[in-house]
Write a structure and sequence with these properties.
about 240 residues; alpha/beta; 7-stranded mixed β-sheet; 18 strands; about 15% helix
Length: about 240
């Protein structure tokens, strides 16, 4: 069976579990939890499922129902972390460019494609460099290599930008509740560009990721000075209810 056919089969057969999410000793229903694990790595708990995006930093003690990989660079696709997070029936939703690097139940995706996994919709959109190059004319992340992801669940929409510059496609994204945007400036947007991207996307909340040594407080100050968008500068391992 090809990966594409297997992906369609997996999306049809992915079984649901009742969502019971505990916080401060009480049970919350229909709530989404997000934990920043460091760098571009995120854990999301939604629709009773554990979803990891770009496993690289942080702890992976909770086994994944879904692992999303936006591209094949080692700080986004880390095989030891994936081995820690996966279980026998984990579904991988990954950029087509790196699908062969992962074994198991793999759904390869390109920009413009969507997958539904029982209460969770994952849409792939563009993510690329057009002004940061490893050599003349060769961007660190060429168009078509990465995917950014829009994830919908529990009535919320989350956007994870992956490694990207501020690109025109960000201006036409749908309504976003939470945007996770890189700000470090080496291989991705820097702080001023990330502020521009935030203003273009207009999320309710923005979470800076892929930070390295960037000035998170400067990012927060600029965004809050120009808009009513909430900046959630999570510490590594910190969780938030979305």
């Amino acid at each position: 069976m090809t990966q594409a056919k297997e992906g369609r089969s997996l999306s049809r057969t992915f079984r649901s579990e009742k969502a019971n999410i505990c916080a401060k000793g009480s049970v919350l229903r229909s709530a989404m939890r997000l934990k920043w694990l460091g760098h571009a790595s995120v854990m999301i708990e939604a629709s009773g499922k554990i979803i990891y995006i770009d496993p690289y930093q942080g702890e992976y003690d909770r086994k994944a129902d879904v692992i999303i990989v936006t591209h094949g660079h080692g700080d986004h696709l880390n095989q030891p972390k994936i081995s820690m997070a996966r279980k026998d029936d984990t579904i991988f939703v990954v950029a087509k460019s790196c699908a062969k690097e992962i074994s198991g139940k793999v759904i390869p995706m390109e920009a413009g494609q969507k997958q539904r996994l029982d209460g969770i919709e994952i849409e792939a959109v563009h993510s690329y460099n057009h002004k940061r190059f490893r050599s003349p004319g060769v961007p660190f992340h060429p168009k078509g290599q990465n995917i950014a992801v829009i994830m919908r669940s529990e009535g919320k929409t989350i956007f994870h930008a992956s490694d990207t510059d501020f690109i025109p496609e960000m201006k036409t994204l749908p309504a976003i509740d939470v945007a996770l945007l890189p700000i470090d400036g080496t291989y991705t947007m820097d702080v001023p560009e990330a502020v521009e991207a935030t203003m273009a996307i207009k999320p309710k909340t923005v979470i800076p990721i892929h930070r390295r040594e960037s000035n998170v407080k400067d990012f927060q100050r600029r965004v809050e000075a120009e808009s009513s968008i909430k900046v959630l500068a999570l510490s590594r391992g910190e969780e938030a209810t979305i």
